[in-house]
Fold this protein.
Amino acid sequence: MQGRVLLLNGSSWEPLAVVSVPRAINLVLAGKAVIVEETGRFLRTVGANFPVPSVIALRTYINVPRRKAHWSRKGVLARDNYTCIYCGVRPGDIVRGRPLTKADLTVDHILPRSRGGKDTWTNTVCACYQCNHRKGDKMPGEAGLRMLWEPKTPRTSYLVIAVGTGPDAWKHYIEVAGSNG
Ligand SMILES: [Zn+2]
């Protein structure tokens, strides 16, 4: 049985992990988790059709130490929702006569690497190719660019970064977790 299942913590419904369908079903059958969202598909077992979950939640709350989100380029782009922090363009927007794609968005170092800028969450932002090019080795102000928001280190939303694009059924739970981070 293919597919991934989003596992939520008990009571907080904070995303904890992404598990395989057999592991999810084992947790449910063992009484450790309940099904929150179904896929609409069924797993045929002896004598019964078992709904294949898309999201499950533990019955009890478990204490999980907060992990610091590991920095990655993909993580920066996901955190900024593939939106240029300087001009606000996004995939699908028409720029110079053609629709922008995710590939047109780059990771920009606010303090340029040539000046000692590091790969950290607060020093890196999503920028379109044009703004990144215009900024070059300058600070945003020197290049006449202003940031539309302040880049932050993701907290609970580390799973959002890890999951990247999950099924639509996951979005609600992941956005809830990300919004208080
Ligand atoms: Zn831009």
The mean pLDDT is 86. Helices lie at 21-29, 73-79, 129-135, 158-163, 168-179. The chain has two domains: 4-66+157-179, 73-143. The longest strand covers residues 33-45.
